[in-house]
Amino acid sequence: MRQFLQSRFANTGVALAMARKQIRSSDTLPSLAGGNQGVVGTAFDYRLRYYWGVTPSGETVAGGGADVIAGSQWLKDPDSARRIQDLTQRFFDEMDSALDASPPMGRRLNSADEAKLAHYCCVLAMFEVLFRAGLTPYSPLVGPDAVTVIATMSSVTDLLALVNPAWVDDLCALSWRFYDTQAHLLDLPAVLNPTFEGSAAVGGADADLVLDRCLLELKTTVKPRVDGVWIHQLLGYALLDYSDLHRIDAIGVYLSRQGVLLRWSLPELLADLTGDTEPVDLLSLRQEFRAVVEGRRSRQI
């Protein structure tokens, strides 16, 4: 699939040059997360989506991460899984209640509510890292000791204590930068954490956001840059939408530390990437990509 995207859409130069020109004069918020920038980046994905809507916490990807902890091979007794499931459910219930009490959609929260939501989002991010990668050095929830510690926790407060206060400060700054630079987007219709018709065939691909038919990827990077791999990633998602359910007509990248939104019209971008002088037929491209995906899947089976 990567070979298909790189060869079929090889001419990324024009798109990248325009994007780099757009971000050249941007200023960057420094990271406060130290070695856990990935956690803050994932937490920002959650925080941003709350500007448009609330998905029940247990139904997020983070809910699957909580199940990873409860099913860990390092649990020492059968009751530990039950205690972890009870704790994480209380966390999700408490977060949902907080969101009901102070709805975050379409507005800038006050400092206390923003910090509280950021705190919750950091826990969601830690759970999501576990779901996607397992217990790894890239998450604060590392190894058998962490699982054992969580199994002995008696309150949601204990779970929230895993979050470094610097991450909360970092996430609040990123959230406010988004509101200050992009608040005009909040009235647009949004699909949160969308999946696609072809997602299951590639292991469950899910994107960050579809905003008014623009497929949007969120990047929290200290270095102000744009990468051709990101464009190919977004095109891969768009091509997995075989039946055009999301009616995607643009792709974009939001650089959260720079407060910059990069956006490309899909027909114009496809023409640039393929070098075709005639209009590119998106339906035909999806059929080509589907053949590649299904060929890969049949070989795996």
Compose a concise summary of this entry:
It contains twelve helices and five strands. It has helices at residues 2-8, 13-23, 37-49, 61-70, 78-101, 111-133, 143-152, 156-160, 165-182, 228-240, 266-274, 282-300, and strands spanning 190-192, 209-211, 214-219, 250-255, 260-265. A five-stranded mixed β-sheet has the order 1-2-3-4-5.
Descriptive report:
By secondary structure, the protein is an alpha+beta fold. It folds into 2 domains: 2-28 and 185-300, no CATH class; 34-163, no CATH class. It has helices at residues 2-8, 13-23, 37-49, 61-70, 78-101, 111-133, 143-152, 156-160, 165-182, 228-240, 266-274, 282-300, and strands at residues 190-192, 209-211, 214-219, 250-255, 260-265. It has a 5-stranded mixed sheet. A hairpin with a 4-residue loop joins strand 4 and strand 5 (260-265). Helix 3 (37-49) crosses helix 6 (111-133), helix 3 packs across helix 9 and helix 5 (78-101) crosses helix 7. It starts with a helix and ends with a helix. The model has no long low-confidence stretch (mean pLDDT 89).
| Portion in helices | 40-55%
- From the N-terminal CA to the C-terminal CA, the straight-line distance is 17 Å
| Unreliable segments of 5+ consecutive residues | none
Number of helices: 12
SSE order, as H and E? HHHHHHHHHEEEHEEHH
Structural class: alpha+beta
Task: Identify the overall geometry.
Answer: globular
